[in-house]
């Protein structure tokens, strides 16, 4: 998903696609397999399974989930960025769990404006690392469009980060980052770490049964490259949100970079995966 001029249809720099590629292995480890198993148990029909992936980015969700579901499958990838959709189409999901083929089509547009009619063919709706970039109104529209269909939303931030070894500035930097996640962008007040709770409530209002599980990143010395890149983005966002932190952050970044170089820095970045299942009468 991308945003510009208050609309979620225009592009992001190529560096963002590269970031999605680099984080894909950590995302794959973090996602909750139990929730995927619950979905698999429901998909027992004979026709191809149709999955709509919202804010599909480079297609990582399909590459992770398709091999865990029965086939054949058809994935419909929704994103506002044409270059991301092109990457996703060029690297489609592998075969389904039973070896059946998986096909892909792409649709460019504002996923927060999708309607129930546009998702009517879906057996499953998915998204990854998306909810925290939406507003409360947008989450409500997405939940309404998904009503009556299983929906799996993974890797939403919840405002819990723990670095080891601890540093006195950790808490203040984390607080500034969370405020940045909740910032207002071109009139849109993002939910940030409040997104999971808002989304669960929105789906409950649609009559769904909602299950939520922790899906943390756990990065350490073996993940030094990704950890360093995450740390840069984390502290840059904190500095942007609270310019008065610029002075203390200079020393903090030096200390943490020294920890990283010495192989003693690790971080837990918590997320939540959310599964919404329609009730029999919904």
The helix-and-strand class reads alpha/beta
Tally of strands? 10
Please count the helical segments: 9
User: How large a portion of the residues is in β-strands, by DSSP E?
Assistant: 15-25%
| Average pLDDT figure | 93
Give start-end ranges of low-pLDDT stretches: 1-11
What is the first-to-last residue Cα distance? 29 Å
Instruction: Sketch the major β-sheet.
Output: 8 strands, mixed
SSE pattern: HHEHEHEEHEHEEHEEHHE
- Give the CA-based shape: globular
- In which range does the helix fraction lie? 25-40%
Radius of gyration, in angstroms, nearest whole number: 19 Å
Q: Can you put this structure into words, describing what you see?
A:
This protein is of the alpha/beta class and 282 residues long. Helix content is 39%, strand content 23%. The protein contains nine helices and ten strands. The strands form two sheets. Strands 1, 2, 3, 4, 5, 8, 9 and 10 form an eight-stranded mixed beta sheet that branches. Helix 3 links the parallel strand 1 and strand 2. Helix 5 crosses helix 7 and helix 8 runs antiparallel to helix 9. The N terminus is likely disordered.
């Amino acid at each position: 998903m991308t945003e510009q001029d208050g609309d979620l249809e225009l592009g992001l720099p190529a560096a963002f696609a590269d970031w999605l590629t680099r984080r894909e292995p950590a995302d794959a480890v973090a996602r909750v397999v139990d929730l995927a198993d619950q979905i698999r148990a429901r998909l027992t029909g004979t026709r191809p399974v149709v999955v709509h992936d919202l804010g599909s980015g480079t297609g990582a969700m399909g590459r992770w989930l398709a091999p865990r579901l029965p086939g054949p499958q058809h994935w419909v990838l929704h994103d506002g960025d044409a270059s991301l959709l092109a990457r996703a189409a060029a690297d489609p999901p592998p075969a389904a769990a039973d070896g059946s083929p998986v096909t892909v089509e792409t649709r460019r547009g504002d996923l927060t404006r999708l309607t129930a009619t546009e998702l009517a063919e879906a057996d499953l709706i998915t998204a990854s690392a998306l909810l925290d970039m939406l507003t409360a109104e947008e989450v409500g529209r997405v939940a309404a469009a998904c009503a009556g269909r299983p929906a799996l939303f993974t890797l939403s931030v919840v405002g819990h980060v723990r670095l080891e070894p601890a540093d006195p500035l950790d808490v203040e930097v984390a607080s500034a980052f969370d405020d940045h996640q909740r910032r207002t962008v071109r009139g849109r007040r993002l939910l940030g770490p409040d997104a999971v709770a808002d989304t669960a409530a929105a789906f409950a209002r649609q009559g769904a049964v909602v299950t939520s599980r922790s899906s943390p990143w756990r990065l350490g010395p073996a993940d030094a490259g990704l950890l360093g890149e995450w740390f840069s983005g984390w502290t840059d966002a904190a500095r942007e949100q609270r310019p008065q932190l610029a002075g203390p952050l200079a020393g903090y970044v030096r200390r943490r970079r020294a920890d990283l170089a010495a192989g003693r820095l690790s971080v837990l970045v918590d997320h939540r995966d959310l599964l919404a299942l329609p009730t029999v009468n919904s």
